[in-house]
Amino acid sequence: MRKTYKVVILPTGKENWFSSPIIKQSDGDILHLRGSGSFSPDYNTAQHIHVVSKETIKQGDWSFIKDNLVQALDTTLVNSLNALKCPKIIASTDKTITPKSWIDYIDNDIFTLSLIASYNQRKLITDIDLEVEPKIQKLATGEEVIGSESEYNLKLKTFDDDSVILYPSKTYTRDELESAFEAGKELGREGALFDFGHAKQHELTAPSFNEWIELIEKQNETK
Known about the structure:
The protein is 23% helix and 26% strand. The protein is of the alpha+beta class. The strands form three sheets. Strands 1, 2, 3, 4, 7, 8, 11 and 12 form an eight-stranded antiparallel beta sheet that branches. A two-stranded antiparallel ribbon has the order 5-6. Strand 9 and strand 10 form a beta hairpin. Helix 2 crosses helix 3. The chain is globular.
């Protein structure tokens, strides 16, 4: 089962420079995949990818106001963030924010490159589909059962390493992914793109480049 969420790219501090997947060039407002060039943290900004939802924010959750990340550490912050209807970060490439639902940007090269290409073309991809499943509910008898599939009883499904399972949403186009592929070739990552998603041998592997194209075309047919 899949559900569509919003995805954003936000700046992070210098302390996360080496863990971030994306570098934002200080001049020109251009994004680059980490490792595609020599960038200094003194003149450029590290960026992380975050998936957000409209869920109620609870103590300990992360959100953001404008481009500033905020953790709801106390009741006052929880109430303020919910009153402002700030989005809740439910998955991130920053494992310190969502350690139980993190985004593996290496295993998801196409996703990362798609975001970069769309941003640089000023046609930003804003949606992504995540695999979800019903929460386990504990009855008064102590028995555990699978709950209903209502929107309010779903949780993110993850691989064994707690990384989320990504799919293209209906807003992705063939041109956007082909642009991402071309960007990958320019960075010398053509082989990595074709092997996309198979490095960890998950039971549910992320789709390859051609599979992403096929998924998008099938989804567009059902619109």
